[in-house]
Design goal:
By secondary structure, the protein is of the alpha/beta class. The protein has 10 helices and 8 strands.
Length: 363
């Protein structure tokens, strides 16, 4: 089918090599596909850009993905994203040739800037006990992956830990980063005891506020935190424009002397809702006037990748590109059957399971 003039113009611009990018190399072209395993088990079918049914890991590889991110929860009610399920999904990802990032939430459910619930099995543990918990759990997951031939290439010690993790003990009170740093270092040490080559990330969603990013990363640095890669979430709807993204990436890379990765980003391809739960993003043009269309999704994602790379980042991960609106794969770990998905219009696969033909993870 002949593309419209707007599509043709977008493709022409997107495919022009950018001289500013010649010196940069984006080694992590990532996708967080943590809900994919359940979607497949529920019967969701996936199709490539030409409409041919295929393995979703391979379809993503065709679109440029070389790295898969999987979150892990300690003991979720749903059973998904637990140890057993992550081991199984890691095998599928590695079989398709992808590298592997394990995202430790250290929780039985979602951990993000607004909540960092301690796992039920660790409730009431003091700081010393939690340090041992983090070490033992991290080491167990890493070595279990290693034994089956899927050693993680990188791990996150915590997820979007803007003000700490494992609350209340690991919450940063009065800018005291000591407790949090001891937990981060427990995870770092466990990872390196399992695999010296595995890279350790510290991940926040502070890219929208450079002062807050300084407060956090200065704080853990002064407290003696160890990490290899600085990881940031960037959603243009909440974290500012691309110029700000470039500024923060360049700043934290220079300030802390470590590579930077955008661990999460996404953009809607439609305003339509495909299940009973209202979508998180409803605007027809959430950022910079870019429409919530397949072409617009591709345009915004390409812009994020180009901006990040030009600023010196080594990778960008798209968050949940395969989370379609299939029934019974909801967001709530305690009611996965009925809770619905507020993200399906942000996936890069449409409601029929076909990948957006315009989206590319740029090499």
């Amino acid at each position: 089918m002949k593309p419209s003039l707007a599509v043709a113009a977008f493709l022409a611009v997107a495919l022009i090599p950018a001289p500013a990018l010649a010196h940069a190399k984006e080694t992590m072209r990532g996708a967080d596909v943590s809900t994919l395993q359940r979607s497949i088990e529920l019967g969701q079918k996936f199709y490539d850009a030409r409409g041919r049914r295929g393995n979703p890991y391979e379809i993503l590889e065709q679109a440029g993905v070389n790295y898969v991110r999987l979150r892990i929860w300690n003991d979720p009610t749903s059973g998904y994203s637990n140890k057993q399920k992550v081991l199984k999904q890691a095998r599928a990802a590695k079989a398709a040739g992808h590298k592997l990032l394990i995202d430790f939430h250290y929780s039985d459910t979602w951990a993000d800037p607004g909540k960092q619930f301690t796992p039920a099995a660790w409730e009431g543990h003091d700081l010393a006990q939690l340090q041992q918990d983090v070490y033992d759990y991290t080491y167990d997951i890493c070595t279990s992956l290693k034994r089956q031939g899927t050693t993680p290439d990188s791990v996150q010690i915590g997820n979007e830990i803007n003000v700490g993790m494992l609350w209340p003990t690991g919450y940063v009170n009065n800018s005291d980063f000591g407790p949090l740093t001891s937990l981060l270092n427990a995870g770092y040490d466990a990872t390196k005891a399992c695999s010296r080559k595995t890279q350790v990330m510290v991940h926040t969603a502070l890219v929208g506020n450079i002062d807050a990013a300084h407060w956090f990363y200065d704080g853990i640095t002064a407290a003696g935190a160890k990490w290899d890669i600085t990881a940031l979430s960037y959603y243009c709807m909440w974290h500012g424009d691309l110029a700000n993204l470039a500024t923060v990436i360049g700043d934290v890379k220079a300030r802390y002397g470590k590579p930077v990765v955008i661990a999460e980003t996404a953009y809607p391809w439609t305003t339509e809702n495909f299940d009973h739960l209202e979508n998180i993003i409803l605007s027809p043009a959430p950022c910079d006037g870019i429409p919530a269309t397949q072409q617009g999704q591709a345009q915004q994602f390409a812009a994020v990748q180009n901006t990040a790379r030009a600023a010196g980042a080594i990778g960008v991960f798209y968050w949940e590109p395969t989370w379609t609106g299939i029934a019974r794969n909801g967001w709530d770990t305690e009611d996965i059957e009925n809770s619905g998905n507020a993200w399906e219009n942000m996936a890069t696969f449409d409601d029929s399971g076909r990948i957006n033909p315009y989206v590319r993870w740029l090499r």
